[in-house]
Amino acid sequence: MARKLVPVEFGKFLTALVFAQIMFILADSGLGQLAAKNIAQSQFEWNEWAENIFSWRIWMNIFVLLAAPLLSFLFFPAREVAVLSIVLTLAMLSLGTADFFIWVLKGFRKVILSSVLLIVSRGTLFFLILGALAVHSKIKVLSFIFLFNGIVSVALAGLVVARSVKLPRFVNLRREFFHDIFPQICRFSIVIIGFVLFNRIDVMIVARIFGTLSAGFYGTAVHILEFLSLIPFSVYGVVLPVFSASGENDEKLKRVFKNVFLSLFLAALLIILVGSFLVTPIVIFILGRDFLPTSEYLRIMLWCCIPIFIAQLFFAFLLARNDFKILIWGVGTGLFVEVLFNVILLPSQGVYGAAWAKLLGTFSVLFVYSRAIGSYQLLSFKKNLAFGFAPKLGRPMC
Fold this sequence. Notes:
There is one protein chain. By secondary structure, the protein is mainly α. It folds into 2 domains: 1-173, no CATH class; 199-398, no CATH class. It is 80% helix and 0% strand. The radius of gyration is 21 Å and the shape is globular.
């Protein structure tokens, strides 16, 4: 999209997409992950709480659909961007409901089936986008392509869940739900919304201060970083049910944790080493010379791969242990650090300051999570190393 759209058009589309993603996360709030965790903890069966979580997700979809038009016209004076944001919000809600069903399959340990569904959903969107970029009025067509793909994806995912396990029932929310499960949803919602703000607020700040053109360049770098983050997120979807169904002193759990940690760390290091040398020619080849500033921002943000990859593993374990306090502290610290350094660096460093603020924010999240992981004795830490996340594998913590 970045290559085929002119930078100004891409900036408009990206701004509307960021709004839609924020609205989507207000409805989703990680409910699919909570449902998968509940299913794994109940010996891989639908339980009352998982069905209540599904019903709550439907109610939140309705609420966001009603609120999105008002908020879009409030935030975006330009009518074109406001309408785009409404259509994309509906598209993201549909796609998010499909992802909820995919998480349900992960909770039932149907990893291959869930992976196939995810690939089909995103792959179909990719090829539809390629076709849309060949016509006029590209932005309008793209928004409806997103909507069409979301509707088809949720229908397909619902059918697969119905055939392979069982569709959840839409049930009345009982008082016990608000007493036992709703507090978990609220705490996890704070975490998820915090991370969405953490990943999006810098793009909104850049758009507000430097305009949609600069936001397009910078936002492209952020989206490339998010694409790389699919590596640890795919691992997260596999290990979360494993961690949820395991006890704290399970030796298999510790072995899996250490092996995954080492694999993610090496993968992040490889991406940084290769990307540091090839980021400019890769960006020019994929996006064109118009997006050359993106390569400079990305060169800084590639170093975020280390904290992002490792923090995703730590996040999965802490979530499985219902350690919401640490999860909230982590994202809160990261968001505070990112906003603080945006305020400090943007006046003197321009958009580059946002990239450095992103890097400092991700490392601050990892710092908080690494301190918590140490108490579970999954990894041992050398106290003299910065950020305290370099492990000595195979030895118990001192």
